[in-house]
Amino acid sequence: MSTASAGLGRPGTGAWRWGLPVVLVLLPLLAWPLAAVLWRGVAPDGALSAEALRTVASDRFYWERLGFTMAQALASTALALAVGLPGAALFALVRFPGRGLALALVTVPFVLPTLVVAVAFLQLAGPDGWLSDGLALVGLPRLEPQGALWAILAAHVFFNVAIVIRLVGGVWANLDPRAEEAARLLGAGPLATLRLVTLPALGPAIAAAGALVFLFTFTSFGVVLVLGGPGLDTLEVTIFRLAVRLVQLPEAAILSLVQLGATLAALSAYAWLQRRAAARQPLRADRARPLSALSWRARALAAAEGLALALFLGAPLAALAWGALSVDADGPTLAHFRALFEETGRISFIAPLDALRWSLAYAAGATALALLLGVAGATAVARARGRLGTLLDAALMLPLAVPAVVLGFGYLTTFDRGWYDLRGSPWLVLLAHTLVAYPFVLRATLAVQRSLDPRLPEAARLLGAGPARAWRHVELPLMARGVLAGAVFAFAVSLGEFGATSVLRRREFATLPIAIFDALGRPGGLGRALALSTILMLVTAASVLVISRARYREIGEF
Amino acid sequence: MPVAMFGTWRRAAAALALLVGALLLGGAACGDDGPRELTILAHDSFDMDAELLARFEEEHDATVTVLGGGDAIEVVSRAILNAGNPEADLLFGVDNLSYRRALDAGVFEPYRAERRDELPAELLDAVGGGLELTPIDYGFVDVNVDLAADVGAPPASLQELAEPRWRGALVVQDPATSSPGLQFLALTVALLGEGGWQEFWEALRANDVRVTGGWSAAYLTEFSHNGGQRPLVVSYTSSPAAEVFFADLDAPPTASLAAWPLLRQVEAAGVLAGADEPELARAFIDFMLTDAFQAQIPRTMFVYPAIPGTPTPAWWRWAEVDVEPARLDASAEDIDRWVREWTRILRR
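^ inputs. structure came back:
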């Protein structure tokens, strides 16, 4: 058994057995609608036309969009790692009061609709807000976030840092400390130990988190639409602007292919690096130490990090909750929450409990399906060999790279007749949610799987277990932590999903994000939108807490 | 130990099966077909009295389902994508700037509404004058000012918005993604003409105009009345009345300028060609022109009823404007070109 091979089990065996079902699900759900709409774009008259290709290729603007999109995604990913890794260390290494709750709260921004956070934050930072007063007090100019690159990057970190904290923290918390202890004994300083021992061991998890953040920020839509300006459009936004009126569908199709190609290239590079760098680490139960066991310096460091995170992530959330309690009012009031439940007597009325129920139903269903797809996909990737494995690895992440408007139009034009006329069906929404949810399970599972020792399932086989039994009794329990971490995000990403749902929306099946946008778009709906967002915030925190509590035997956490 | 593990695995599998099963049941329970079903594809601002709708459903022994389809631009795109094999029976929300593309794609089948003769000619003409479309309501997109911002005398002409005095004061919407944005762009074309409108937008850009993706972001985050920095926003002439209605005020805190001719945004309904229930769709169009439906339009959608003389609520007087309608005659290609050129001027 070559130690250079990635993943558990013998490489090359069973890759297709695991991969085929996933591919069979993805073909009709992703490839078919996508191909249909792209074909319509590049061949408007039934035959391939090079005109749109020429238009796009000869226009510098589109090249600049590609360059900008790539650059801002890389910068956002680097920043999210820079902010998230210390956070991951804090949660992984220190047991402090309220740790579970804090970890759940960290996940909340990931789910919230951009516009609502922006509205709430601007209400605080606006001319009458205390944030502006505070800045003015110390002689600083008022923040002008709109149309500024720094604001987009900051927002990307705000919305995505949870991915780094949770995925990396999850592995870190279970990393065997003995290697680090040995390094210290051999005379390495704390920084050298971190650089030479800890970070390499965390490599797969850091790369997995980085890949997800990269994908999410590469395809950034809401943040750019709200905070962007001239020169700050991502490809995703450019594609939306071209596609939504259909007139420039050819250009949109070409740009979609560019976006898919660019992400596929970046992901393949990442997958290739991953395979080379995969380091096996013995993992063990939670290693976090209570605050009291830390040195004063470590305690101060932990406190500073905690405070910084709390301010960065907490201030906009607090602004949102405060807005829900006080918009247009003199003091805190529950009026907006009460207004949610008052029948307006109009058909636009969305009962908040119904929206909540649909949100939870979609999230539960999407998580269940994402677990099946994600674990199977991860196993297939881990077992596939060579270039095939690299390609499969990258291709399975593509659902996150597909422009939402393009996929939405694809659904409308392919699931359109006979028994598969799914337009307006909640099933289509569930499937769309599953598509964006399973990559999280896949990445998180793979990150753990790649860190595990391949000799364990081999030992089981030697002792007479069949491949299925060895998988179920040895590999799966060992992967459980990664699967759980992925499940948290699968659930969260479904709770917050807006793009695909909005194309497929139908009032009876409105989710909380849909209800929030509906309220925002109507005159007088701001208070209700903020109140609904606060509910979404609480529901997210509660769900994440519950899922995180799930443990597979003694392994679990995160 | 394997037994215990197997148990855990089985429990997990059972939980999963339960989840999927519950969802299946939930989905199945929703998909029952009893009475006839009318499906309406409508833009996001569509709204009406629930009681009134229940009356329609009762009268026709039908259930009505509304598909939210984005704004006027998006719903038309959806209808075109599904031309001949529509996802709904009726489209509501196609407007004076989006109707041509829909007509070109053969999305509608003609229907003469019972009260068609009572509709003013300018409303009918704004959506082509053909039987494919029946105007239901209309509105005006206009610059609104925050009265509390103390900006002095409001601008008296469009061009004034490009003067230094109004530097950084205005927020508009992207015409590629927002229908009020497109209406405002069309207004500048109507008032300033070819060449003039491009110059105006270049001057606006130099004057630090702010562009948002949609109405919500402009009105709720940028407009100084809602905590933003800009006292002028592109919105509707009825927005001040909506402020009065929702905050229960005596007078609006904002005003629509109504200082120059405005473009009438006419919203129309049409029966989709190939609909499953064309008869119900036709009945619904007539229903939308009844006195009862027309009278609740200001309260539910904050636009003006299409049938002249429809009684309106007292607070609606804040929405009454006396402006000359702007004239605009443009093909679908013209509108596409404006959006392309606008994009070149503002986004690059």
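Confidence is low (pLDDT under 50) at residues 1-9, 25-32 of chain B. Residues 189 and 196 of chain B are 8 Å apart (CA to CA).
thumbs up if we can close this ticket
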